[in-house]
Amino acid sequence: MNKIKLISFLILLSCISTISFSQTNGTITPDMLKQIKQSFKNNTHSKALTNAISNNDLKKLTLNRDNIDKADHYFKYKVKVKGITDQKSSGRCWMFSGLNVLRPKVIEKYNLSDFEFSESYLYFWDQLEKANLFLEIVMKTGDKPIDDRTVQWAFRYPVNDGGVWNSLTNLLIKYGAVPKSAMSETHSSNNTRYMSRILNLKLREDGLELREMVAKKAKSDKIEKRKVEMLGDIYKILAYNIGEPPSEFTWRYKDDKDSISQKKTYTPRSFLKEVLDVNLNDYVLLMDDPSRPYNKLYEIQYDRNIQEGKNWVYINIPASEIKKFALQSIKNNEAMYFSCDVGKQLNKDAGLLSMDNYDYSALYNINFGMNKKERILSRQSGSSHGMALVGVDVDENDSPTKWLIENSWGAKAAYNGYLTATDKWFDEYMFRVVVDKKFVDAKTLKILKQKPTLLPPWDPMFTPDN
Questions:
Q1: What confidence category does residue 18 fall into, taking pLDDT thresholds of 50, 70 and 90?
Q2: Which residues are catalytic?
Q3: Which of 92, 106, 436, 452 could link 297 by a cystine bridge, Cβ 3.0 to 4.6 Å?
Q4: CATH assignment of 77-462, given 1.10.287.130, 3.30.450.180, 3.90.70.10, 3.40.309.10?
């Protein structure tokens, strides 16, 4: 009997232990909370910090005063650029930045005081093409469940105004370009958010309809016909908001000696061919992503804006290698498309990107120690903004110490429209640089012959610049 009681007691004790464990496993218990609260010393010092932090701007409290006067905005090597552009309240940084890489060539060719391509012209076609790509993806995945990851990804953002370098080249090759005088900005092109909502609202509705047609096994020609009708609605929305792109226009220019050229009629493609002596296929796309093996070629699925266009295909190499090619490009008066995590350690007033700008560790007495790889894997950091890389300063050994970046936030933003990035910041938050192949060594170019590793569209590196 005693043995039976003992067994019963042990079983009961086991049940109690299990219940106790299940009730406390992973939860914040009173004992745990007591231990946690010990990390916060409620004294006069902590009260002063609470008053300061809770009543002030964190960036002002963490601003490193010693760092403000250490940086200058002088550069030994600088590309000859003129004028600062302004993307206003839009996510078209990739387009402005790419065109800012190309427009100095037009300025130099015609001896102009300034020149700007029409961003609204290319933006119109970008949005129409992205709408078509979305509908094509919907049709291709129409037999998959709505909670399929690719389907979810597609419906999350049918279209957006972000992009990368290949987005621009896809557009230029297919649609050419026009000067800003041939198609100026509108309120909707300068402020894209609300129009994007309307486009996405309609496209999600259209996408569901196409999925239903696929599910009911409608004939492909009938589905295609319906898709064309849907794109007609998208075209109409774009035309009302941005204006219809010109198929032909006239252009003349005044050079820096006030000589005015003869007026000439162009199509967008003939204009681009005449004013820009560039082979867009001569550029190589470089990435520094330490979360993946270096010296490999990668391609991101659906990272494009045109159905038949090229995806983002890039060579992954360390920042130290990218800087060698960037230095040569700048020395030869060639600007580059450049993208980074611009919001990290940016002192906008000073126009300075530096790892020493803000000291959060000192304010909170807490260590923040992730490296670049860890920030990528945890989604803490990624490419968020595209700009033009136009200058570099060097030490006595001709090694980079800081970089000059032409932004598209207007001439009054940062330092006269430019940002200065320390070389250390460049290592940590630079992600993409597009360089002409002639400045890249044979060893790196050989990587282009590899079969690229295909990454899914939800990969962290898919994040479009905006």
A1: very low
A2: 93, 385, 407
A3: 452
A4: 3.90.70.10
